[in-house]
Amino acid sequence: MNQNSEIVQRRKKRTEWFLKDRFGMFIHWGLYSIPARGEWIRSVERISNEDYQMYFEEFNPTGYRPKEWARLAKKAGMKYAVMTAKHHDGFCLFDSELTEYKAPNTKARRDLIREYIEAFRSEGLKVGLYYSLIDWHHKDYPIYNDANHPMRGNEKYKYVKQDFSNYLDYMHGQVKELLTNYGKIDIMWFDFSYDDMIGEKWRATELIKMVRTLQPDIIIDNRLDASGQYNGSIKTANPLMYSGDFASPEQIIPPEGVIDQSGNSIPWESCVTLNNNWGYCSNDNIYKTPKVIIRKLVECVSKNGNLLLNVGPDANGKIPEKSIDILKKIGEWMEKNHESIYGCKKSVFSKPEWGRYTQKGNKLYAHIFEESIGPINLNGLNQKIKKARLLSDGSEVKISSPWNAAEYSEAAFINFGEPYHFSFSLPDEMDTVVELELI
Ligand code: GLC
Predict the structure, then answer these.
(1) Is 89 in the pocket of ligand 1 (CB under 6 A)?
(2) Domain that holds residue 424
(3) What is the longest distance spanned by two Cα atoms in the chain?
């Protein structure tokens, strides 16, 4: 086996649980929840370190109850979580010995990442850490010529002497702390590469070697050489050591899922916001509905992918009420229909007109989104179905060959209106799932 196919084999093994679990919670939380205009605020509004400092002085999340977050995630049917240990602003929610710019030095006075890890673990969820490669606080992170730094183009920083290798030591050192001090970590979510800040610029091979030594089973995203915009070298037939274990499309569900150059499906996870921001944004009240999220989760699974759904807790440490309500509704659906999500993947049958299929062995799940005026056709399934049940309550869904479908002999049909009506509403308007046991 050459080194590259070994990388693919190991990736396959490592990501087994991940691709079964399918649904996770992303948590973006930090100082930016105080100004509450999203996590890019420092860059967008070009706020200096000095001016941003007031949020550090003020940060006091007395309402932080990670146990409640974990229970909420679990109830929603999520199986894992990823939380920002450090975002681009450089502020650390964890207790790092390498900086003073951390939660234990705020009024919070403690390691907030430790509490998150313990809470989620104790609810049986897998835990992941988001770590920003970018750092707008560190003195040796590129400033003047950088594309995103809040002080880009600022003459004051034009001739400041910097030593990027010093930043890299710091960044590697913090990753080491995160993967040494908290027991088993399931996912490492680096964010992100751009311009020439990519791959070996981060000393990526060295970093990955360390990560794998500390946490052999951890799975790592692809952003040491990619971003939400590009999938990077994970898509090549010969991935590199730092190409990552899964692709991370952002705010999009890829048309055909993510495949490599030889056409093989590779692990992927779409990360998606509930409103239009990752970090808390008090004026952003445009939320996706539970129905949309449920259908998008189904879409991901039907294309062999995962969904990482974001919440942005406020300055006090509370997940917005609206997000909580949506997650609860998703949970109600998941409670009855999770069999059609966990362990499922792309079906051997192509996408039906009225919705989507997911599949697990000989169980084919028909996710019916669209109402019909009569029989719903299951293309190519005539004589192939042993039994059909409504997944939510186990009741029989009758397979029929109606008189008016005599010309479509390849298809099997179901009809929720039978025996009385031709027109009906679906049992679940979010997503009616029929479990089809195949012969
Ligand atoms: C982007 C943004 C960042 C966010 C991330 C989530 O790369 O820079 O703010 O954390 O996407 O995928």
Answers:
(1) no
(2) 355-438
(3) 82
